[in-house]
Amino acid sequence: TAQVLLGTSLLRDDRDDDGHLATCQQLMQQPSSPFADGSFLTRTTTPVVWKLRYDGSRELTLPLTCHLKRYTSHEAQKCLADEHLWFIGDSLTRYQHLSLAYFLEHDKWPARFSNEVPCTHIDEFGNATCSPTEDPNVCAEGDWNKFGGWPVYLRAVGGGTDGSIFRGRMESQSIRTDGYAFENFQYMSSKAKGSTKLSYTGELGWLGVEQFAFGWNFTGCAHSGSCRYTQEEYDKKLKQVKDKEYDWNISAIVDAFGHEGGVF
To answer: From CA 192, how far away is CA 147, in angstroms rounded?
Structure first.
């Protein structure tokens, strides 16, 4: 087995006799494996290559380390059954949260590209990989501009009037208005799909000065698939912002999850 030293991290080009990389799971499960904790997956010294796909999108690969498994929705539902994952961060983290929730709920990923007419992103099977005009992308807020922009987008994520995108299983305690951006979501898959809870709390700011905004507690409607977010509810949130009526007001992650924290 070839070994490559990069910085302070010892990586292995762990290939079988046919020259194929071991899966990352196999690498982690080897006896006395230095990779058992999986930290190499996010280490900056682990070589990564964003492999260009036929349609112009890119796929993350670890060419000198291991083969990343691409889970089916059924495998993901089984792996994440009864788990609670909490995503905290900016818009990139928001879309990681929403795309995973979409995958668990609809058994497919959102379209790889936002709406484009005509779509110039075609996969190797001849299928367009842009989101259709009539089905705006949950991971591309620009798709929603023609329907009313952020207010319509946030309400649709949170159930709208009929359950909408996530069939009532996504609560959206979120609002966008001049000078304010509150984005907090909670998804709960059905029992048949594993009862997986995915929560997201948005942060504001950059480069080490991130902080939370104000916010409201989740009601738990995602558990029963009863979440709705109507225009009336959105207007109520606007008034609460004006009147500064919030359930919590914290400035840092340690305040929510730390020794004295209990908000989340």
So the answer is: 33
Query: Which residue reads 């004006």 in tokens?
Result: 242
Nearest to 47 by CA among 33, 28, 61: 61
Q: Cis omega (within 30 of 0) on the bond before 132?
A: no
Which tens digit of pLDDT belongs to each residue from 119-141? 999 999 999 999 999 999 999 99
One-letter amino acid of 29: Q
d(CA 38, CA 27): 9
Q: Give the C-alpha separation, 239 to 127, whole Å.
A: 45
Measure the CA–CA gap between 245 and 138, rounded to whole angstroms: 28
Structure tokens of 228?
Answer: 């709705």
How much is the pTM?
A: 0.87
Higher pLDDT, 207 or 187: 187
- pLDDT digits 0-9 by tens, 138-152: 999 999 999 999 999
Q: CB-based burial of residue 176 (10 Å sphere; 0-12 exposed, 13-18 middle, 19+ buried)?
A: middle
CA dist 215 and 92 (Å) reads 20
Sequence-ordered list of residues with C-beta below 8 angstroms from that of 89, at least 6 positions apart, any chain: 202, 203
Q: Are 79 and 70 in contact (CB under 8 A)?
A: no
